[in-house]
Hints:
194 residues, alpha+beta, 5-stranded mixed sheet, two-stranded antiparallel ribbon, 39% helix, elongated
Amino acid sequence: MLDKEEVNSPHLEELMGHYHSIISLLGEDAQREGLLKTPERVAKAMLTLTKGYTMNPHEVLSSAKFKEEYSQMVIVKDIDFFSLCEHHMLPFYGKVHVAYIPNGYITGLSKIARVVDIFSHRLQVQERMTLQIKECIQQTLNPLGVMVVVEAKHMCMQMRGVEKQNSITTTSDFTGAFNQAKTREEFMNLIMHK
Length: 194
């Protein structure tokens, strides 16, 4: 049996009260059997979906920083992520692809995925998340270059507004060696090859 993730926050009760009010304001009976525990469930879900605010991505990368003379491209691709759009608080989700060229130091590969998780577990826009992931890796590891590509579907475009179901938004950002078109092209060819 899977253990439940324990959500602890001094704001849990207050959030529950706000969600109780929201349910009532939407025209529902917040005391109806099916909705009795909904304020607590939603409050805990929101605390989980925004837990990135309480985590330090630089510390995560630094915790597995190793001296290594490897100086070729390191790629972690197809990192699944889920985030909340800060404009409508609806999910956007997809894949993140990260490459860096070490400059004397590498990090544990899982730490790259953890950095993605930390920034995606905040109220976000895709463009900022792309930039934050790149900047965190660049500042913490000081590599010869970093490139991040994010591909995502946005529920705010699928469920409301233009209601386009199959559109994918792609963002990218890069530093250092990736300023050279040849290096960017090599990375793009490697992540697009399935």
